[in-house]
Here is the input.
Amino acid sequence: MAGTKSTRSSDPRFNHVVSDVFNGDPRIMSVLSILGIKTWRPLIKLLKDHNKIRSVKWRNGQTQSEEDLPEELKEELIALPSYLNWLQNNYGPLPDHPIDVTAQTSRSSFIAFVMLDPDERGGEVDGT
Here is the structure.
């Protein structure tokens, strides 16, 4: 996207989530670039801060203006930590069997999770 710095990093989990789970959405890539987020831990820290997610802007490459993210993208960002927890809970205990984020997450699995109602996934999208 024009006017947006690359969010590509040497962090395989970060790269996989941005390119595969979030489908390389240029609006999400713009938000991460604006915030200087290029690695896993800062990404997860951001996604757990729902107030920050609700207020983030992306830079539209065509108009060069900052715009609010659409609500569905905000919901996807907020849902990622719960999705990872859900996968881990279905895979096994963390100390003995941590999930491999790069191998066990995908766009289709993430969308299937987001489409589940709270009872089916065991809680609300915000992790409560």
